[in-house]
Design goal:
This protein is mainly beta. About 5% of the residues lie in helices and about 55% in strands. It has three helices and 13 strands, in the order ββαββββββββααβββ. The chain has helices at about 45, 205-210, 215-220, and strands at about 15-25, 30-40, 50, 55, 65-80, 80-105, 110-135, 135-155, 175-185, 190-200, 225-240, 240-250, 270-280. Strands 1, 2, 3, 4, 5, 6, 7, 8, 9, 10, 11, 12 and 13 form a 13-stranded mixed β-sheet that branches. The longest helix has 5 residues, at about 45. It is globular and about 70 Å long. The N and C termini lie far apart (about 55 Å).
């Protein structure tokens, strides 16, 4: 626990980034990047004490910083009608910070932020956009996706001291996909857009969650997959350096009940927003 007379903590780290872009042609480029990351525990992780959804949380001023080696490589393509990118990333973290159950009481549990394990998170990310003119309209198709996989490279269960090396890392959404269609007139005054967002069910569940003696409904509900739809329309009026924009958006079009993955509270249902933008330059 923190010393009531005050404590002082000092840590140092070497961080930085380096990137490389190889331009194969005017349309195609190859990119590579390496970064050294560093995350100091926040004040809540260091000092918070109080009740939690399950049991209580105790402070832990001994939790150290989380350090990472982050690599990504990819390619980017751009032409008059098509643009897209594809990349692979591999991030390795040592002393990964996570809030875990560290002790049991007669009727409940105590959780603390700890340097939980060494972790690797890797995957692919991509995006694409295609635009073409058809009659009085401009049609744009767009989408992006990501595939993520997290693994514990080294670590132990803080309750049992059993090794969890080779088990799935917690809080990893496996697949995310966003796609949509946008229509505008040639003068780009009127526009309409439809999009959907899909997240795949989490099937690789962390060992500490599977073996937890305090599983609750929210833990399991936050693993479910979902698909959410959105619809928007708008009008932009421009004259000289002045413009007025009016938008109408419908979020969660089908009024679906769902939870963002690894969140306890359900997301809101269908909602309608109206926006007005006035600009004078």
């Amino acid at each position: 626990l923190p010393n009531p007379n005050g404590d002082s903590t000092a840590r140092t780290a070497f961080t930085g980034d380096v990137g490389l872009v190889f331009k194969h042609s005017d349309k195609l480029s190859f990119v590579a990047h390496y970064g050294r990351s560093y995350r100091h525990p926040n004040l809540e992780e260091l000092l918070f004490a109080g009740p939690a959804t399950i049991g209580s949380i105790a402070p832990n001023i001994t939790v150290g910083p989380e350090k990472g080696d982050n690599i990504d490589i990819g390619l980017k393509f751009r032409s008059s009608q098509f643009q897209g990118s594809l990349s692979y990333f591999n991030n390795k973290y040592t002393d990964f910070i996570s809030t875990e159950i560290t002790a049991l009481t007669a009727s409940s549990s105590i959780s603390q932020a700890i340097n939980y394990s060494d972790v690797r998170i890797q995957g692919f990310e991509g995006d694409v956009q295609v635009s073409f003119k058809q009659g009085p309209t401009i049609t744009s198709l767009f989408g992006n996706f990501s595939y993520n996989k997290g693994d514990v490279l080294k670590g132990t269960n803080p309750l049992t001291n059993a090794s969890i090396a080779g088990t799935p890392q917690d809080n990893i959404t496996p697949v995310k996909i966003l796609g949509g269609l946008r229509l505008t007139d040639k003068k780009e005054r009127f526009w309409g857009e439809y999009s959907l967002r899909y997240q795949k069910e989490v099937e690789r569940v962390a060992a500490t969650l599977e073996d937890s003696p305090f599983l609750i409904y929210q833990d399991l509900a936050g693993l479910a997959g979902f698909t959410i739809q959105r619809l928007g329309v708008g009008y932009d009026w421009r004259k000289d350096k002045k413009s007025v924009g009016l938008t109408l958006n419908v979020e969660n079009l089908t009024n679906k009940f769902y939870r963002e993955q690894f969140q306890f509270a359900p997301a809101r249902g269908r909602s309608i927003t109206v926006g007005l933008r006035i600009r004078s330059m």
